[in-house]
Amino acid sequence: MKKISIALAMSVVMVLCAIVRADDHVKLTGYLVDVMCADGHMKSHPENAESFGASHTKSCALDDQCAGSGFGIISGGKWYVFDAKGNELAKALFEKTKKNDHISATVEGVQQDNKILVEKLTEIE
To answer: How many Cβ atoms are within 10 Å of 57's Cβ, its own excluded?
Structure first.
């Protein structure tokens, strides 16, 4: 019975390791945008995602309603949403930056589907 329990435990650990490896570590560079603005724009005009991201303003991103929706990054014409940590880091970056638009950054983390579990967020000057 003890051998079966150990074998079962080892199998569970191997499956969990496989699941963790299925996530992709990513490093993306792009424009920071709030979820409310980006979701609407990406649904209606995905073909000009980069120009939208570049023109998105700091004041819009820090508006209570927009900031409350969370943040993400437009990179390579695709939209990636941040997790809670990423939202905190992005809001702090928006508050600190001297730029009014063209707010770009590099995000590092783990991609799960279309969401980034953010480990690091760095503004590009």
So the answer is: 17
